[in-house]
Known about the structure:
Layout: H1 5-8, H2 14-20, H3 40-56, H4 60-73, H5 78-90, H6 94-107, H7 112-124, H8 128-140, H9 147-160, H10 164-177, H11 182-194, H12 198-211, H13 216-229, H14 232-245, H15 250-256
Helix pairs in contact: 2-3, 3-4, 3-5, 4-5, 5-6, 6-7, 7-8, 7-9, 8-9, 9-10, 10-11, 11-12, 11-13, 12-13, 13-14
Amino acid sequence: MTLRASTFLGVVVVAGLALSACKASPPAYQPPDRHKKPEPAQAAIANMQMAIEYMRLNNLEQARDRIERALGEAPENASVQETAGLVYERLNETSKAKRAFSTAARLGKQDPSIQNSYAGFLCRTGKAPEGEKLFLEVARNPIYQTPEVAVLNAGVCVGSAGDVVDAERYFKRALVMKPNMPEALLELGNLSYGRGDYKQSVDYVVRYLAVNPASPEVLWLGFRAEHKLGDNTAAAAYGRRIETDFGDSQQAQMLRAGLDQ
């Protein structure tokens, strides 16, 4: 099983980074003073948000420029440091990413979302035991609103290190915490496929699609599992849904290339 960065970002936590930087209620509106420069903290948040947007656009040089401005303006802001870690990681500048993530974790030790992000970085850089431990601490934090995400992340983390037994245990635990959680169902389906239990893999796909919108990943899993079971009619049905609903996806490209692994 491979480590997916999207999972470790707390299921699109990047979208929440800008919000985590300023959780207080907004002040009453005041007309902007065009001749007054923004305060460093405000400028840092604006630059951080722009860095996030540039990351979404895969414009990493502009993301670097903006986050480095933010670091100069507010180096003690945990969310700025966290975003810097994400930018530097995307740029494959691991030492800078490590420094930024560890600083974010130190500054934001009371913020479980930042700890969740740091745990993901630990797992992605070969420190699965430390990442697993931190994910479980996040899951136990009473102010963290999605503990099932942290438990799922712990499963992805240990699975990436080859421990599929504990990975399955964590995925099932996440599913108990949030029945029909799509990410947990997909992970369990992939584990079943990986050990050759194609019938169970299909069962997870069916359960997923009964209560969640389709995704190219789950349809691809269904296509491959049904193909392995020899049910070409069912496999073709999944294939048609991939082509129809997700024609630009990587899964559609693999389908056209005749891949099923």
